[in-house]
Amino acid sequence: MNPNPLADRGKALEDQWVREKEKQLARDRAAAQKRQAAASDAPSGSGDKGQQQAGQGQK
Asked: What is the pTM of this model?
């Protein structure tokens, strides 16, 4: 017999909140890594594409 069932419920809710928070942080980290990877790739690739497209349009 459990002396305090509300304490168990509170602990379960806290554990659930922690799991959800960890998932959100993991998603945020993954998104930040994708943005960083895209930003590091974009300057070298976007300038070349823009110049190529402009040159093709003038011909």
From this structure: 0.54
Angstrom distance (rounded) from CA 52 to CA 10: 61
**Cα separations (Å) of 7 from 10, 15, 29, 39, 46?**
5, 12, 33, 47, 57
Length reported for the chain: 59
2 φ, ψ (degrees, to nearest 5): -85, 125
pLDDT digits (tens, 9 = 90+) for 3-38: 787 789 999 999 999 999 999 999 999 999 999 998
Residues 48-58 pLDDT 10s: 555 555 555 55
Largest CA distance in the chain: 85
